[in-house]
Structures are given as C-alpha cells and as structure tokens.
Amino acid sequence: MMSIKRLLAVSLTVLLSSHSIAAPQELDRVAVIVNDGVILQSDIDASLKSVRMGAAQKGQALPDEEVLKDQVLDKLILDTLQAQEAERIGVRINDQRLDEAISTIARNNDQTLLELQQSVADQGLSYAEYREQIRDEVAASEARNALVRRRISILPAEVENLSKLLSEETNKSVEYRIGHIQLRFNSSQSKEEVEAQAQEIKQMLDDDEDFSKLALTYSKGPKALEGGDWGWLRKEEMPTIFADQITTQGKSAIIGPFRSGAGFHILKIKDVKGLETVAVTEVNARHILIKTSVILSDEGAKQQLENYIRQINSGEATFADLAQQFSADPGSASRDGELGYQTPDLYVPEFKHQVETLPIGLISDPFKTVHGWHIVEVLDRREVDRTDSALSNRAYRILFNRKFNEEVSTWLQELRASAYVEFIETDEELDVVN
C-alpha cells in the first residue's frame, strides 16, 4: 500500500506535469525512500531550519552544512522507521493525549500555550502542522517504549540486591549534566581507526574545542543533534556505561574515550548539582484487559468492557469475578485483577494517566493501550518514603531505566540495519556524480 507521503509526492508530480505552459517549478520531491514510506525534501528543509533556529537560540555552533545534513537525515530516517513501527502495532494518539503532551512542552519551556503557538508561528509552521508533528513523535515514542520494554528482563534477585544497596544510602543523590559523543563501529573503518578518531576528538576537547559542535559533527549517539546533551541525570538514571565511568570527577571533566560493544564514547560532565529528596506516591489498582483479534475488533472489545461496567454497577457481577473469568492479563486475573501498590511511572502512558487521575472507587471508561483494551479501578493511593516497597520500586525503576536506555540504542540500530533505505538523487546531483 502506498503511504500518504508517497501519494503526496506522486500528486505533486502530476500537478507539475499538468502545467506544461508554465516554466518547470519543483514544489517538493521525494528525497529518501524508507521501506514503504518516504522523506520529502520539505521534511529535510524543515528539520534543518529547526536545528539552525534552535542552535541560534542557544548560541550553539554548528558543523559544516554537509555534516549537519547527514545528521538530520540520519534522525529523519530513524523517526520514519519508528513512526512505521507505531503504525504497525496500532498506536493511536487521540486529541486529549496530544493536548496533554503539548501542554507539557509549554510548561517545560516556561511558556503559556499562546506563547508556544507564537513561537511555532515564528518558525514558519502552522499550529496544525505542529500538532501533527507532536502527534507523530508521541506515537513513535510509545511504540519504541512498548517494543523495547518487551526485550528487557529484570530478575527478582537484581531488584533485591539493588534495594539493599539503596537502603544503605541516603535518599539524596548528586545530579550530573552529561555531554556524550559516540563513535560507532562500522564496515568502512577498522576498530583501531575508530579508536584513533576518538583519541583525536579527545585531544581537540583538551585543546578547548566546543564539545557541542564536536558532538554535532562526529557523534552517532542518540543525542547528537542536541550537541550530545543528555540533560540532568542521577547516576542510577544513566546508561550503565556512563555510571561506571563517573566516580569522583567534577564539573568540566572529560572522561574517555572508553569502549563498549557499539563503539567508543567520550563524556563531559558539564555541571553538577546537589541533593534531591525522593518521595513516592504508590497506587493500588485493578483492571480487566481484553485483547483484540481477527474475530474481535476494537469496537467489540470496547462494547464487551462497557457490558462489564454495566454488570458491576447493577450488582449482577463483581469486578473481581469478571477479572478472574475474562481478563487477558493472567498475572493480575488470578488476584481479582489487582496490580498491587505500584508507582504510576511503571505503566504505559494511557494507563498511567488513568491511575493518576481516577477518583478512588470509580471505574474508568474503556480505553486502549498497546496491550489492548482496559477498564481500571483505583482502590487506594499512599505516600511512601524509604519503605521497603518504595525501595523495591525505586530499584526496579533504576534497573529498568539503565537497561531501557541501553536496549533502545541496540533496537534502533537493528531497525536501521533491517530497513530498506534509498536516497533519490536529483538531476543536478547526477550531473555532479557523472
């Protein structure tokens, strides 16, 4: 099936050919084919413009135009592949979720919604276009989270061992602002050549070259277009390869190069700041999960859950009985649908939103996640501070975050390696080649 962008490109071609009297004028063109989708030249131009404007606002130096274009193309290809994965597994972002995401962006930028809309207009985008960009990004993020989550295995013994270590520490930890440059192993360079390049970059940093510019120029890490900036992280939130390297170094320290299975890395501690108190809200909820299939559509699953709500409200059945009989989550079904006390961050976004906002004792309307259709009831909420349960949950989150950040990089590399990607050359580019 031809994707929307491919249809758009074909339509543009037809439009241009129909105006034979006027001088030829290209409105847009396909620049890259990615599996059954495309990246248009307008996508590349918009991304380049956005990166330049962001760099100008931050006073950040940029690399040469060709290097910058390569970085932008690399990101657009990965974004397209993730959007395709989101479509494949049926991730859909409704307007309510989209509004929440945009409100969060505005808050993080210390802007009102009107100020955000104005800044979008200043970048030459309509607000409608911006909303759809954010919708795509949120969908891709949820698909990535769901697919990578399946690859992560955390043993009870790992959680127990880390909980013991955490119990010996204070509930405060130092935060680091980390810069990262990654050079990947590839077929065109030997590992020795990659290491030699890493050493050259380290020397440039020792000579006070700008870290952000070097990251934009050379890094193939996940934050390359942000100048390698990972933002503020506690050690337990960092990928393990970062945390293992940071010991007693202070602000402005350069660490590396050091090697991982994917390549060589250089870190810079851009800043360090104090201590943070940990407080946790736990929610005890229960749910019923219905999964769609060839014979059960989304509408059918929704109607089935609406019928369960009616039965519970009328007293014909209890939530516990229906969960035991019909829930497709065997782990919770055997416990009357109960999930136990958990921090909401452990759940996928739609489920997290429900357990955070539902009043205690009320049953939600049916809603969809990547796992299927749910109804959920919040049984209780509690505030915990350094209890055994809180420590176990915190240990699990630490382990999950470390493994997730490591696994995302591997997943993206696999996704890119298995994709069909074709760069479409223009006549001008072919003339240069020939």
UniProtKB/TrEMBL annotation:
Its biological purpose: Chaperone involved in the correct folding and assembly of outer membrane proteins. Recognizes specific patterns of aromatic residues and the orientation of their side chains, which are found more frequently in integral outer membrane proteins. May act in both early periplasmic and late outer membrane-associated steps of protein maturation.
GO MF annotations in UniProt: isomerase activity
Protein's name in the database: Chaperone SurA
Domain PpiC residues, every copy: 173-271, 280-380
Coiled coil feature spans: none
Localization in the cell: Periplasm
Keyword terms, alphabetized: Chaperone, Isomerase, Periplasm, Repeat, Rotamase, Signal
Domain remark text: The PPIase activity resides only in the second parvulin domain. The N-terminal region and the C-terminal tail are necessary and sufficient for the chaperone activity of SurA. The PPIase activity is dispensable for SurA to function as a chaperone. The N-terminal region and the C-terminal tail are also required for porin recognition.
UniProt cross-references to InterPro entries, sorted A to Z: OMP_Chaperone_SurA (IPR050280), PPIase_dom_sf (IPR046357), PPIase_PpiC (IPR000297), PPIase_SurA (IPR023034), SurA_N (IPR015391), Trigger_fact/SurA_dom_sf (IPR027304)
Known catalytic reactions: [protein]-peptidylproline (omega=180) = [protein]-peptidylproline (omega=0)
Enzyme Commission number(s) of this protein: 5.2.1.8
Signal peptide: 1-22
Source organism per UniProt: Vibrio ulleungensis
